[in-house]
Design goal:
By secondary structure, the protein is an all-alpha fold. It is built from 13 helices and 2 strands; from the N terminus they run αααααββαααααααα. It has a two-stranded antiparallel ribbon with strand order 1-2. Helix 1 crosses helix 6 and helix 4 crosses helix 6.
Length: 277
């Protein structure tokens, strides 16, 4: 897709190494953090909690998989993929396991899920219907790690200078050198620093804050829709040619086009009172 090696390397680093690789554990940590910080998961009946997650995650999964096979694949061919939807089944599995094991001390679950993560990396793809068992096992540790963030958030935010310097040093070491368990330590340091530096101050009443809050309300719908928009647009020969001739401008342009189109579609469905976004 790119002619320029530097651009290709940067694109690979940003999309595959940072966003698709490092941020995936972050999403599961944040999901676990929100789950464990809510009192609801302790008092509500298990069946109701699971049905709520089913309605929230698996129904949209089924709807968009149907959309893909009925509309997108006939237009784009079998080489395209609804790959981003795998996240929904894995997240539903994490919630379900956490709900069933909610009486077990979460610290025990963290300890047991940690070695299972390494086992899963050697397991390869093991699928049970729509559920990728190896991915579920891999990401359960990060979901349970959300409990650590929810319970020690203030300590992470107010980390003293010595611990902060050690964390940065370990992160740099992970980036520069190869050693056993490098990736796991890199994930841990990346997320530790991310939660330390990210701002938790409430938004001020500005145009920027209103835009962010509006996107936040539609974030799940944007996630579901954007991939299909990108796949369809890339089928256009003019768009493909622009990617070859002007790769950076095209990537930035595609980001904004996909974002705005996804947001517009999300707003339309919200006004139609479509509840599965």
């Amino acid at each position: 897709m790119y002619d320029n090696t530097t651009i290709e390397s940067f694109g690979h680093w940003l999309c595959n190494i940072v966003l698709a690789d490092k941020m995936l554990p972050t999403f599961f940590i944040m999901s676990g953090m929100l789950y464990f910080s809510s009192r609801k998961h302790k008092v509500e009946k298990k069946v109701l909690l699971i049905l709520n997650k089913f309605d929230r995650l698996l129904v949209p999964y089924a709807l968009f998989m149907t959309l893909y096979f009925a509309v997108i694949e006939p237009l784009t061919g079998p080489n395209s993929s609804p790959g981003h939807l795998w996240f929904l089944t894995i997240l539903f599995s994490c919630f379900t396991i956490a709900i069933f094991l909610r009486k077990v001390d979460t610290r025990i679950l963290i300890v047991f899920s940690f070695p299972l993560m390494f086992f899963a990396s050697r397991l390869g793809d093991v699928n049970l219907l729509i559920f990728d068992v190896s991915k579920i096992v891999s990401y359960m540790f990060w979901f349970f790690a959300g409990w650590i963030v929810s319970n020690y958030y203030e300590q992470i935010k107010n980390m003293n200078r010595l611990l902060l310097r050690i964390s940065i040093l370990l992160w740099i070491t992970c980036v520069c050198f190869e050693f056993p368990f490098k990736q796991t330590l890199l994930y841990i340091m990346f997320n530790l620093l991310l939660f330390h530096f990210i701002s938790d101050k409430p938004f001020t009443n500005t145009v920027f804050s209103r835009v962010i809050l509006a996107l936040d309300k539609c974030s799940f719908a944007i996630y579901l829709i954007h991939h299909f928009i990108i796949v369809l647009l890339l089928r256009n020969s003019l768009v493909s040619q622009l990617y070859i001739m002007y790769p950076i401008i095209s990537v930035v342009g595609m980001f904004w086009v996909a974002l705005m189109m996804s947001y517009g579609i999300a707003i339309f469905f919200h006004k139609m009172e479509f509840k599965w976004f």
